[in-house]
Amino acid sequence: MKRLSELTAGQKGIIDSFEKDEIFIKLMEMGCVPGEKVKVEQIAPLGDPISICVSGYRLSLRLSEANSIFVTEDLS
Question: Taking the model in full, what pTM does it have?
């Protein structure tokens, strides 16, 4: 299991769980729910923020937010 922030551009994963902090409710409201496929689309030149594709739309996340999402790497 990896953190979403550890994936590189083009890598895919499946959301597994969240760290226990206040941000997970906000992330779930934005479509980042366990079992959902996610793909890292772009990473900013300085590494923060990152753009992901989840639930059919693009979402920009700070590295601190992406760091609180645990994913299982999707090799397909």
Answer: 0.86
CA-to-CA separations, 10 to 19, 62, 75, 76, in angstroms, rounded: 24, 17, 11, 12
- Tell whether the model's pLDDT for residue 76 goes beyond 80: no
Q: Which of the four CATH numbers 3.30.565.10, 2.40.170.20, 2.30.30.90, 3.20.20.70 does domain 2-74 have?
A: 2.30.30.90
pLDDT in tens, 22-34: 788 888 888 888 9
CB 31 within 8 A of CB 57: yes
